Amino acid sequence: MKDKRIGMEVSIALSEAVRMANADCIAAYPITPQTHIVEHLAELVADGKLDAEFVPVESEHSALSVCAGTSATGARTFTATSSQGLALMHEILFIVAGMRLPIVMALANRALSAPLSIWNDHSDTMASRDCGWIQIFTESGQDTFDQTICAFRIAEDHRVLMPTIVNLDGFTLSHVVEPLFLVDQELVDKFLPLYKPLYALHPDKPITMGAFGMPEMYSEAKKAQDIALRGSYPVILEVWKQWGDLTGRHYHPLETYRMEGAKIVLFTMGSFGEIAMEAVDRMREKGVPVGLLKLRLWRPFPFEDIRQAVQGLETLAVLDRAISFGGVGGPVCSEIKAALYQQPKRPRIVSFVAGLGGRDVPPEQFVEMVEQAMKMKGKKKTEEFTTIGIRG
Amino acid sequence: MAKPIDQYTWKDIPIGCVVTEAGNAHEYKTGDWKSQRPVVDKDKCIKCGVCWVFCPDAAIYRTDDGYYLANLDYCKGCGICARECWTGCIKMVEEEK
Questions:
Q1: Do residue A342 and residue A227 come from a single domain?
Q2: Closest-approach residue (CA) in chain A for B20
Q3: To the nearest whole angstrom, how far is the Cα of A100 from the nearest Cα of chain B?
Q4: Which of A89, A120, A280, B60 is deepest in the core (most CB within 10 A)?
Q5: Cβ of B15 and A211 within 8 Å?
Q6: Closest CB from A207, A219, A221 relative to B20
Q7: Which residues in chain B have their CB less than 8 angstroms from residue A219's CB?
Q8: How far is B20 from chain A (nearest CA, A)?
């Protein structure tokens, strides 16, 4: 099975990953473009191919609330959503993170309304950036399948115990049929042992979860939570290394492409990395010293990987697919600027916003970003950010 | 709890702030919230128990000789007992005094 590449819709592949991970409970509400994921999981449960409780709830707020309950009893728990659905989960996102419940969520990224859009950008996930979950972005269907299995392993590790979001671009990934390698069930069983909760709700040993935190305790609790999220970083590396050893597919917090001799580098997150690679290839053919950095791990943010990767670069052109209205512009770029501010030497950082609400960003526009970023050399004052592909 | 809440460092808190000991709320004395406490004039008290009925926190108990007093470990000083007392035998007194 592992040696045969098959064509499969990415949403179906992701659901198959959840089946192979043998999830115990799935609670979800269908929303475009996540729909195929929950539909397929509901079928797997109904057909007896996955021995799990499938809870069809009336809202996303309830979906994640059900997940909180089942995860608290020690069940391996999965949910999936998009856009407005994530916004409706917002309150519970923070609660399950604070309670350290290792729920895995697939987030088929979609723009937030208004105007109403069902198409892809990163505004949904950026609005929930500080929810305390581990947040991973995938670039391809294979990546999405692999990361879904890895996410359970990362989340449930007793050194981590954090809920984890696997972000996949809505439609661009979720609805595309891609050639990919599945893995054998024995491999998954070996890689992902049964979830053994550190604490679980059980009448034989009563405990309290989600208790009140007085001012004397709350700050300590938040500090512990932040340290724990940062502390998940080495475990994530360890899990990806093991997955790589088993499958030959290796993943890193920050992926690099054609960085040798690069002076100007594009920076992307999510599926647009593949289009950017095409643009980099075209520019390299013409002798432009361009490279590409692709961020896979958004939380915990890989500060050191980024500091190392940008050493010696002249210019960094960062693509964001969300706007922080009235603020610095792109959330990814703002994070990179903050990460590099204390560095004695740092590249010029140029912030671009493109690909909002399903707008395509073809390779030509990545070339345009590189050209615009190069023109900014020597300019004293630049705008907070520049939009690409927007009329007028 | 093994030690007072304000002596826990961030490293001491169980993962997810789980409370591993069931029923430990009884160790938590909520009476220190109050700024006033009820004082009963036993000469006026007719032992009717209306204060016991109205106390929203079940902090009032009956003594062996039939009077009703507030357990100050749990009384929050709301003053409902003093408001409801038919004879006016309960006075609310500032905590400092």
A1: no
A2: A207
A3: 5
A4: A120
A5: no
A6: A207
A7: 10
A8: 5
Choose among B8, B18, B19: nearest Cβ to A220: B8
Give the gap in angstroms from C-alpha B89 to the nearest C-alpha of chain A: 36
* Number of residues that make up chain B: 97
Give the per-residue pLDDT at B30.
Answer: 87
Number of structural domains, chain B? 1
Mean pLDDT of A280-290: 98
Contacts 24+ apart (CB under 8 A), B6-10: B6/A216, B8/A217, B8/A220, B9/A220, B10/A219, B10/A220, B10/A221, B10/A223, B10/A224, B10/A227
What SS3 state is found at A180?
A: strand
Cross-chain Cβ contact B10/A224 below 8 Å: yes
Beta bridge partners of A77: A25
Contacts of A194 (CB under 8 A, 6+ apart): none
User: How far from each other are the two terminal CA atoms of chain B, in whole angstroms?
Assistant: 31
Residues of A in contact with B16 (CB under 8 A): 98-101, 161, 199, 209
The pLDDT of residue B95: 86
Confidence of residue B29 (pLDDT cuts 50, 70, 90): confident
Would the CB atoms of B10 and A98 count as touching at under 8 Å?
Answer: no
CA distance B24 to chain A (A): 10
pLDDT in tens, A22-59: 999 999 999 999 999 999 999 999 999 999 999 999 99
What is the residue whose two structure tokens read 């475009």? A32
Segments forming the whole domain that contains residue A158: 5-247
pLDDT band at residue A235, thresholds of 50, 70 and 90? very high
- Say what the pTM is: 0.93
Encoded tokens for A271: 């599926």
Tally of domains within chain A? 2
Kindly report the CATH number assigned to the domain that includes residue B53.
3.30.70.20
Distances in Å between the Cα of B27 and the Cα atoms of A237, B3, B7, B30, B58 are 43, 11, 16, 9, 16
Which site among A158, A207, A232 would you substitute to test the B interface, given the most B Cβ atoms closer than 10 Å to its Cβ?
Answer: A207
